[in-house]
Amino acid sequence: MTTPTTPEAVCPACSAPGVGRFCANCGSVREGATCAGCETPLTPGSKFCHRCGRAASTASAVVATPARPGAATSGGISTSLPWIVAAIALVVLLAFLGGNRFNAARGSSLDAPVNALPQAGLDDRGAATPGAPGEAAIRGPDISGLSPQERADRLFNRVMTLNSQGKTDSVQFFAPMAIEAYRLLSPLDADQRYDMGQIAEVAGALPLASAQADTILQKNPTHLLGLILSARLAALKNDTAARRAYEARLLAAFTSESAKRLPEYLRHDNDITSAIAIARRTAGRTE
Q1: What is the set of domains in the chain, with CATH numbers?
Q2: pLDDT per residue over 28-48, tens digit each?
Q3: Are 196 and 186 in contact (CB under 8 A)?
Q4: Cβ distance 276 to 254 under 8 Å?
Q5: CB within 8 Å of 132: residues ≥ 6 apart
C-alpha cells in the first residue's frame, strides 16, 4: 500500500518545488506564515514583513514543514545568517568600545596605539598616514567616543559609498550591520527611517525599505523623503502607475513641505532636488 505524499508547490520567489510555509531553497514565504515580531500574515514570496520589516526567515526553523529531511533547516539558517553575523558584530563592537573607554581612563598616552585598534566598516584605521612616521602612521582616529547615531552614520556612509563604487558583495556584507545599528536607535525618526530605507534599498531588501517609507507617510502623508523613497521603490518594482502617483504627490507637496525647513530636508537636499527634477520630467512627458 502506497503512503500518500503531500504535493509539492512551486516557490513564488525562486520557483523551487517544496512544501511547508517557507521555501527550503531561498527562505521566502510560501503561505500560511505569520511574522514572528508583529504576527502579521506574511505575503507569499516575501522575505521580510511588510509591516515591521522583520526578516521572515527568522521564524522558518520553527514553523516551516521541510520538503525533505534537513532542507528547511538549512534554508532558514542560510537566509538568517547575515543578520546573525550583524547582531554578533554589533555586540562585539559595543563590548570593545566599552573596554576602550575603561582602558583609556586608567592608562597613559602610551596606551593610545593599543586602544585605537581598527574596526572594519567604521573607519580607516590601520592605513598609513602620509608623512606621519612611526606609531602615528598606524594609529588613526579613535572612535571610542562615538554615539550610537554616529556609528550608524558611519555604517550608512560606508554602505552608500560601496554601492556607488559597484561593490555589491561588500554592500551585502555591511548592510545588515548598518540596519542593525539603526534598529538600536529605536524609536526612529523620519530622517533615520529614510537612511535605513536607503540601506535596505541598495541591499535589495525592498520589503524592509517599503516598511520605512510607509511608516514615514503614516505620520506625515506629505513628507518629502517618504514620497521620494516610495517612488524609487515603485520604480525598482516596475510599478509605473505607483511611481507616477508618488511623484505627483511629491510635486504637490514640495512647496509647502520645503517651507518647513525640517532638518532632514536640509540634510538630504540633493536627494530632494534630484527627485523633483525627475518628477517634473515625468509629468512633462505625460501631459
Answers
A1: 7-83 (no CATH), 84-139 (no CATH), 148-286 (1.25.40.10)
A2: 777 777 777 777 777 777 767
A3: no
A4: yes
A5: none
